[in-house]
C-alpha cells in the first residue's frame, strides 16, 4: 500500500513553521478500521482560528488557556475585530484585561451605563461601530468621552430603550469629535436642538443615516440642513411640526428613505414629501391619521410601507428584475448574484427600521391589528430573522416573542398568531437561531420559543424538531440571560405531559437544578423559571424521582428558605408540593420532610403577603402531612398556629388558597393531638366559614377537616358552639360534591353518636368562650340531614330485590349505585373504624345506616385502602357486629342491605388474601 505524506505549513509570526502531519491513506475505507487518536494541539493554526470563530468569547478565553500555542492564537487580531459585552458584567477592570486583545477592535456592543464607562479602558481607538442598549443612565459626559476617544467612529447606535440623560450637548460633542460618522441612531432623547443638528451637518459630511427615534422634540428645520442624509427615521417622535417637515425635508437632495412610523403624520405631508425626486421609500407603520383616511393612497411612484398596504409588494417594487413571489423578496434579494450597492443600502436600512417598528408596535399591542399580524406581520418578522444583521435578527426574534402575548400575568397568547408563525416555518428558523454561538441570538430565540410554546400545537412542533435538546443545552449556558430564557422554554414545554419524559431524557432536569445552584443569588428571573419548570416536572412520578436524584430537593428547599423574591418562593413551594404528591409510589414525601429547614420554611411562607406564595406553601404542607413523621414535624415547626391563622385570613381569598388552607388543616388533623391543638388554636370557626364557600373543592377540604376534628368530643362541641351544625347540614344537602356531602354527614354522625354528650355536661375547655347551645335541636337537625343523605343512595326497587334474595347481582347493583369513587382514597385509623363498628350498635337507626354506608365505601374492592380497612375491621370484631345489624328486625332496610354488602366485601378481600398466601 502506497502512502502519500503532505507537509502542512503555517505561519507563526515571521518564522515559517513546519507542522506535523498525519499520513493520508489512499484506501480510505481501510482507515475506518484503525483507531486514530487526534492530537488537538497539532492542528494547523488556521484550523484552530476557525474553531475559535465558532465559539463565544467566554469559551474562546477558556480554550486559549489550555496551552501556550492556543494562547497565542487566541489573541489573533481577526478574532477580536468584533466584541459583544452585553452578556457580561463589564467594569473598568474587565475591559483593562481585554485591552491587549482589542487593539484592532472595530465593532463593539455593550449594555448599560457601567459598561459604557468602561469602554474607554479598552483603548480601541480604531473602533468604527458602537452599539449600546439599556442606556437610560448614560450621561452626556460619558458619551462625550467615548466620542472624543474614538475619532474613527462611523456608526453610533443607542437604544431601543430611552436615553433620558443624553442631551443636545452630547450630540454636538459627537459631531465635533467624530467627523467620519456615517450612521447616528439615538432613541428617547428629550430635545435635539438645531445647534446640535447643524453641528452634525457642518462636521460630519459623510453622515447618511440619521435616526432620532421616540424623541420628544427634534428641530425640523435644522434636519433640512443635513444635505448628506440618505436615510432618516423619526419613528415614534412626538411634537413634530409637519408643515416645516414638508417645507424643508422634501428639498434634501439625497434623501432616499424616510421613516415616520408611529407618529401623527397626516396624508397631506406625505403627498408633499412624495414630490422629492430622490425619495424612493416611505415607511409609515401604525400612523393613525393615515389609517383613518381611507382615501389616502401612495402616488408619484414612491414605495409606501404602511399597515394598510401590502408591504411585501411595496418592497418588491424597488426591484426591476425580481419575478419570484413577493413574499420571498428578502431571501431573493440576499441571494442575488449581481449586487446593487444602492439597493443593498436601502434594503439593509429597511430591515433595521422595520424590525425596530414592528417590535415597538408589538410591545404596545394596539387594538385592531390582528389581521395585519396574521396576513403579513408574522411573515415579515420571520423574513427579518434571516437578515445578515445580527441586531435585526435579535429584534425580529424578540418581536415574535412579544406579538403573540395577550396577557403577561396569565401567560396567555394568541393562538392564531402562534399558528401563523408555525405555518410559515418559524419554529425551524427559531431553533436554528438558538443553535447560534452568538449569545444574543440564543437568548432572543429561546424567549420566542418559550412564549410560542404556550400553544400546545407549537409545543408539539418544537419537541418534534429537537427543540427540547436545544433548550436543555442552552439551560447549561454560562450566560444568565440565555439560561433564563431556555429555562422559560422548558417551563412552558413541561406543561404538556407528553414532553416531561423527553425533557428528563435530554438532561433537562439536572440542567434546571444546576441553574438554581449556579444563580442562587442575583438571578431571580432564572430561578423562578427553573423552579417553575421543576414544579411541572415534579408532577410526573418518574420525573419527580429524577428531580430528587440530582439534588432537586435540596435546591428547592434552599430557594424556599433563602430567596426573597415572591415569584421564586411561589414556584419553589409548588415544586415541593408536587414532589410530595406521589404518596407511596416514591419516597420524595419523606425526603422533603427530612431536608433541613424545609418544613420551617414552608410554614414561614404561609405568612407571606403574596397570595400565590401562601397558596403553594399550604399545598406543600397538605401533601407533606400525609407522611406521619412530617405531620408531627409540621406541628412542631408551628404549622398548626400558622395554618389556623391562614384559614382565618382567607375568607375572601381565591378558592385555590381556601382549598389548600383547609386541606393542610385536614392533613394535620389526622393526628388526634394535632386535631385537639387545631381546636384549641381556634381552627373550628374558619373551617366552618370555608365550608360555606361557593367552590366544591373547598367544600371537600373543609368538610374533611371538620370530620377529623369532630372525632374529638371537645372539638365536636366547639363545632356546635360555632354554628357548625347548620353549616354542615347545608353542605350535606346542597354541595355539588358527593365527597363533601359524605364527609359532612360523617362529621355530623361523629358529633351526635353520644360521646359529645358527656363532654357537654362538663363544658368546654377554659380557653373556649361559653355559648348557649341547644344540643337537642342540633341533634334533630343533624340526624334528619344524615337520613336524607343516606336515602339519596337508596332506590326502593333495588333495595327490595336485594332484601328478598341477597343474590350477588342484586347486591352489586346496590353497591354501584351507592359507590362514591373518591371515597376510596380516604384512609381511616383503627380508632375511626372502631367508632363506625360501634355505631352499628347505636340505638339510632339513622346512625346505624350511616355507619354501614361508610364502611361500605371504605371496603369496596379496588379502593386504594380497602385491604387496610378490612384488616382493621377484622381486628375490631366487625363481622359479628355486621351480621347482627344485617339480621336485626328493627334495623332500617338501608342498614341491613349495606351491612350485607360490607360482609360480602370482607369475604372477598379475605379470599384474595388467602389465595396470595
TrEMBL record:
SUPFAM superfamilies: ARM repeat (SSF48371), RNI-like (SSF52047). Residues 37-83 form the F-box domain. One of its GO terms (cellular component) is nucleus. Its main location: nucleus. Keywords: Nucleus, Repeat. It is found in: Nucleus. CDD domains: F-box_AtADLO1-like. GO terms for biological process: lateral root development. Signal peptide: none annotated. ARM repeats lie at residues 425-467, 466-508, 507-552, 551-582, 597-639, 638-683, 682-724. Promotes lateral root initiation and development, independently of auxin (IAA) and abscisis acid (ABA). Belongs to the beta-catenin family. This is F-box domain-containing protein. It comes from Rhododendron griersonianum.
Amino acid at each position: 500500500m502506497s502512502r502519500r505524506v503532505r507537509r502542512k505549513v503555517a505561519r507563526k509570526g515571521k518564522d515559517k513553521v513546519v507542522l506535523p502531519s498525519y499520513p493520508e491513506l489512499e484506501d480510505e475505507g481501510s482507515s475506518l478500521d484503525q483507531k486514530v487518536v487526534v492530537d488537538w494541539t497539532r492542528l494547523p493554526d488556521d484550523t484552530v482560528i476557525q474553531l475559535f470563530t465558532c465559539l463565544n468569547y467566554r469559551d474562546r478565553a477558556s480554550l486559549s488557556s489550555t496551552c501556550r500555542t492556543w494562547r497565542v492564537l487566541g489573541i489573533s487580531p481577526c478574532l477580536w475585530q468584533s466584541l459583544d459585552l452585553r452578556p457580561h458584567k463589564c467594569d473598568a477592570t474587565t475591559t483593562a484585561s481585554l485591552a491587549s486583545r482589542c487593539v484592532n477592535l472595530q465593532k463593539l456592543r455593550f449594555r448599560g451605563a457601567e459598561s459604557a464607562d468602561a469602554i474607554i479602558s479598552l483603548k480601541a481607538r480604531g473602533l468604527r461601530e458602537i452599539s449600546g442598549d439599556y442606556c437610560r443612565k448614560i450621561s452626556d459626559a460619558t458619551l462625550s468621552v467615548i466620542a472624543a476617544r474614538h475619532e474613527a467612529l462611523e456608526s453610533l447606535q443607542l437604544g431601543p430603550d430611552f436615553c433620558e440623560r443624553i442631551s443636545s450637548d452630547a450630540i454636538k460633542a459627537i459631531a465635533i469629535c467624530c467627523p467620519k460618522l456615517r450612521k447616528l441612531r439615538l432613541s428617547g432623547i428629550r430635545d435635539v436642538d438645531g445647534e446640535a443638528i447643524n453641528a452634525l451637518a457642518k462636521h460630519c459630511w459623510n453622515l447618511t443615516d440619521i435616526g432620532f427615534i421616540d424623541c420628544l422634540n427634534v428641530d425640523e428645520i435644522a434636519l433640512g440642513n443635513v444635505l448628506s442624509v440618505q436615510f432618516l427615521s423619526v419613528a415614534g417622535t412626538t411634537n413634530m411640526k409637519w408643515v416645516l417637515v414638508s417645507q424643508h425635508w422634501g428639498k434634501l437632495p439625497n434623501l432616499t428613505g424616510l421613516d415616520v412610523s408611529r407618529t401623527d403624520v397626516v396624508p397631506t405631508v406625505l403627498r408633499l414629501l412624495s414630490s422629492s425626486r430622490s425619495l424612493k421609500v416611505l415607511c409609515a407603520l401604525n400612523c393613525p391619521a393615515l389609517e383613518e383616511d381611507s382615501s389616502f393612497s401612495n402616488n408619484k411612484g414612491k414605495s409606501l410601507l404602511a399597515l394598510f398596504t401590502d408591504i411585501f409588494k411595496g418592497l418588491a417594487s424597488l426591484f426591476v428584475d425580481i419575478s419570484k413571489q413577493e413574499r420571498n423578496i428578502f431571501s431573493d434579494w440576499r441571494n442575488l448574484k449581481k449586487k446593487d450597492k444602492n439597493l443593498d443600502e436601502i434594503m439593509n436600512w429597511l430591515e433595521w427600521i422595520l424590525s425596530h417598528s414592528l417590535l415597538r408596535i408589538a410591545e404596545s399591542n394596539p387594538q385592531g391589528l390582528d389581521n395585519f399580524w396574521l396576513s403579513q406581520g408574522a411573515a415579515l418578522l420571520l423574513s427579518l430573522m434571516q437578515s445578515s444583521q445580527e441586531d435585526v435578527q435579535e429584534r425580529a426574534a424578540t418581536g415574535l416573542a412579544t406579538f403573540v402575548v395577550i396577557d403577561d400575568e396569565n401567560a396567555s397568547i394568541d393562538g392564531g398568531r402562534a399558528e401563523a408563525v408555525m405555518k410559515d416555518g418559524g419554529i425551524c428558523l427559531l431553533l436554528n437561531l438558538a443553535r447560534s454561538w452568538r449569545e444574543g441570538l440564543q437568548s432572543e430565540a429561546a424567549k420566542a420559543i418559550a412564549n410560542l410554546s404556550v400553544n400546545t400545537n407549537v409545543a408539539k412542533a418544537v419537541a418534534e424538531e429537537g427543540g427540547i435538546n436545544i433548550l436543555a443545552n442552552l439551560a447549561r449556558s454560562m450566560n444568565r440571560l440565555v439560561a433564563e430564557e431556555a429555562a422559560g422554554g422548558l417551563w412552558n414545554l413541561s406543561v404538556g405531559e407528553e414532553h416531561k419524559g423527553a425533557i428528563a431524557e435530554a438532561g433537562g432536569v439536572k440542567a434546571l437544578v444546576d441553574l438554581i445552584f449556579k444563580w442562587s443569588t442575583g438571578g431571580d428571573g432564572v430561578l423562578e423559571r427553573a423552579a417553575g419548570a421543576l414544579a411541572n416536572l415534579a408532577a410526573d412520578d418518574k420525573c419527580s424521582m429524577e428531580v430528587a436524584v440530582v439534588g432537586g430537593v435540596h435546591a428547592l428547599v434552599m430557594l424556599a428558605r433563602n430567596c426573597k423574591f415572591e415569584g421564586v418562593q411561589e414556584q419553589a413551594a409548588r415544586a415541593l408540593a408536587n414532589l410530595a404528591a406521589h404518596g407511596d409510589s416514591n419516597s420524595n414525601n419523606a425526603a422533603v420532610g427530612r431536608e433541613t429547614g424545609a418544613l420551617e420554611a414552608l410554614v414561614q411562607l404561609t405568612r407571606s403577603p403574596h397570595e400565590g406564595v401562601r397558596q403553594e406553601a399550604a399545598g406543600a404542607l397538605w401533601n407533606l402531612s400525609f407522611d406521619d413523621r412530617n405531620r408531627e414535624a409540621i406541628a412542631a415547626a408551628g404549622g398548626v398556629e400558622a395554618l389556623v391563622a391562614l384559614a382565618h385570613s382567607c375568607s375572601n381569598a381565591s378558592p385555590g388558597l381556601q382549598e389548600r388552607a383547609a386541606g393542610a388543616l385536614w392533613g394535620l388533623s389526622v393526628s388526634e393531638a394535632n386535631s385537639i391543638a387545631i381546636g384549641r388554636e381556634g381552627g373550628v370557626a374558619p373551617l366552618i366559614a370555608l365550608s360555606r364557600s361557593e367552590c366544591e373543592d373547598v367544600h371537600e377540604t373543609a368538610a374533611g377537616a371538620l370530620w377529623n376534628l369532630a372525632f374529638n368530643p371537645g372539638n365536636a362541641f366547639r363545632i356546635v358552639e360555632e354554628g357548625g351544625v347548620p353549616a354542615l347540614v347545608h353542605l350535606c344537602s346542597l354541595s355539588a360534591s358527593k365527597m363533601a356531602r359524605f364527609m359532612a354527614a360523617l362529621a355530623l354522625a361523629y358529633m351526635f353518636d353520644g360521646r359529645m354528650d358527656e363532654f357537654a355536661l362538663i363544658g368546654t375547655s377554659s380557653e373556649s368562650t361559653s355559648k348557649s347551645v341547644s344540643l337537642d335541636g342540633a341533634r334533630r337537625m343533624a340526624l334528619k340531614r344524615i337520613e336524607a343523605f343516606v336515602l339519596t343512595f337508596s332506590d326502593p326497587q333495588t333495595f327490595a330485590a336485594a332484601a328478598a334474595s341477597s343474590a350477588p347481582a342484586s347486591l352489586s347493583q346496590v353497591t354501584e349505585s351507592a359507590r362514591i369513587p373518591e371515597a376510596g382514597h380516604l384512609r381511616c385509623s383503627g380508632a375511626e373504624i372502631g367508632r363506625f363498628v360501634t355505631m352499628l350498635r347505636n340505638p339510632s337507626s339513622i346512625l346505624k345506616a350511616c355507619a354501614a354506608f361508610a364502611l361500605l365505601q371504605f371496603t369496596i374492592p379496588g379502593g386504594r385502602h380497602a385491604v387496610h380497612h378490612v384488616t382493621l375491621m377484622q381486628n375490631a370484631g366487625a363481622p359479628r357486629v355486621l351480621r347482627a345489624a344485617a339480621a336485626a328486625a328493627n334495623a332500617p332496610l338501608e342498614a341491613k342491605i349495606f351491612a350485607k354488602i360490607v360482609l360480602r366485601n370482607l369475604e372477598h378481600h379475605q379470599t384474595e388474601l388467602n389465595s396470595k398466601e
